[in-house]
Write a structure and sequence with these properties.
The strands form two sheets. The protein has a four-stranded mixed sheet, covered by helices on one side. The protein has a four-stranded antiparallel sheet with strand order 2-3-7-6, with no helix packed on it. The protein has helices spanning about 5-15, 20-25, 25-40, 45-50, 55-65, 80-90, 95-110, 115-120, 120-130, 140-145, 240-250, 255-280, 285-305, 310-340, 350-365, 370-375, and strands at about 135, 150-155, 160-170, 180-185, 190-195, 200-205, 220-230, 235. The longest helix has 29 residues, at about 310-340. It folds into three domains: about 5-130, Acyl-CoA dehydrogenase/oxidase, N-terminal domain (Butyryl-Coa Dehydrogenase, subunit A, domain 1, Orthogonal Bundle), CATH 1.10.540.10; about 140-235, Beta Barrel (Butyryl-CoA Dehydrogenase, subunit A, domain 2), CATH 2.40.110; about 240-375, Butyryl-CoA Dehydrogenase, subunit A, domain 3 (Up-down Bundle). It is of the alpha+beta class and about 375 residues long. The protein is about 55% helix and about 15% strand. The protein is globular and about 70 Å long.
């Protein structure tokens, strides 16, 4: 992708923003620059060798990418700007875009808790990239909707909780990283907290290799009476807390979808420069996806204005928007592959990488099948 094209697509992203995101235009453009000049040269190493772009992740924090939505001082959260920043990253690399979402989600947890200690200690470090971390909510989000059992159990000990169990998939981790956890107590109460990877009794273990997204430092995490101090508790119990964070958790994922779709449109445009005489016979064209993307952005950015709306009607809209974005991502990548043809099918071809990455948007929690189950549970399928 040329610099001229990248500038154009970044401008398109900015023009889609309204309100708060317009005030963060400089931040979004700096994120786009870092992604273009520092991240793009690493995409093959990230994809084929599983390299974790830690330097880029920290630089994105310095640029302000993780801060707009996670106000630690009680200000108005700006999810739109955070989504725009994530989108600029995901245009080049979904592994890194996903790590940005992990970072954003952890900041979102802390910002919306009543833990003032975390808001003044770890929270600000997450916003600047000084500290990095993941979400850890794949299992709890499935558990809360009856898909699988909660995997972590805790017991009260002096000054906190001792937690035991295994989480099979937690991303954006490292020896000095943090992540969110939910564990159940013997009385059935569920508690959410922030876990430190350096905690005694906590071990991160290599997992299976993925077909894509291997540069996300995704591990299984073993808890063997790992100590979670009271100072790290986000919510006890979680009953009122999870409804407060769930819409933002889901909406932020749109940044991955938007960025990947935008790049797939560009791939189709590039292929059309020499193959328009045959590509014109394909039923789905770049303009079709441009129109879809503009519609998705309008809906998501409108939903971003009221992330704490607890009504069923609002949450159903959030679920439908996330479902549509995930399905459109796979469709856009599929069509980019068809438009590019053999040149996209080589091992280092962008189109085949984007297709592999696109399926992740459809299977990351909440996956397409979970979203459809949620809609059925709400009577909105």
């Amino acid at each position: 992708m040329t610099t001229e094209t990248k500038t154009r697509t970044s401008d398109e992203a900015l023009s889609a923003s309204r309100g708060p995101a317009a005030q963060n235009a400089d931040m979004i453009e700096e994120v786009a620059r870092i992604s273009r000049t520092d991240l793009a040269p690493q995409v093959h190493d990230i994809d084929l060798s599983g390299v974790y772009p830690e330097g880029v992740m920290r630089d994105l924090g310095k640029a302000g990418a993780y801060a707009p939505h996670a106000t630690m001082n009680g200000g108005t959260p700006d999810l739109e700007s955070s989504i725009q920043a994530m989108s600029a990253v995901s245009e080049h690399c979904l592994s890194t875009g996903f790590c940005v979402w992990c970072q954003d989600a952890l900041g979102w947890y802390i910002a919306n808790s009543e833990n003032e200690t975390l808001k003044t200690t770890l929270g600000p470090k997450l916003l600047t990239g000084e500290a990095l971390g993941g979400t850890g909510l794949s299992n709890p989000m499935k558990s809360l909707f009856g898909i699988e059992k909660l995997r972590l159990k805790g017991e009260r000990v002096d000054g906190g909780y001792a937690v035991t169990g295994i989480l099979p998939w937690v991303s954006n981790l490292g020896a000095d990283h943090y992540f969110g956890v939910v564990f159940s107590l013997p009385d059935g109460r569920m508690v959410m907290a922030v876990a430190d990877c350096a905690t005694d009794g906590l071990k991160i273990v290599e997992n299976d290799e993925f077909v894509a997204l291997d540069g996300t430092r995704t591990f299984a995490v073993q808890f063997r009476k790992a100590f979670i101090p009271d100072a790290a508790i986000l919510a006890d119990p979680i009953d009122d807390y999870i409804p407060r964070i769930r819409a933002g958790f889901i909406l932020l994922q749109a940044g991955m979808a938007f960025g990947l779709i935008r790049n797939c449109i560009d791939l189709m445009d590039q292929a059309g420069q020499s193959l328009s005489h045959v590509n014109c016979h394909l039923p789905d064209q770049p303009d079709d996806f441009r129109e879809q993307l503009a519609g998705f952005e309008r809906e998501v950015f409108e939903l971003c204005q009221t992330p704490f709306d607890l009504s069923k009607e609002y949450f159903v809209r959030v679920i439908k928007a996330r479902l549509a974005a995930g399905e459109a991502t796979v469709a856009a990548a599929h069509n980019a592959m068809l438009h590019c043809g053999a040149r996209g099918y080589v091992k280092r071809g962008t189109a085949q990488r984007r297709l592999r990455e696109a399926y992740f948007v459809a299977i990351v929690t909440p996956a397409t099948k979970q979203l459809r189950k949620m809609l059925a549970d709400f009577g909105a399928a």
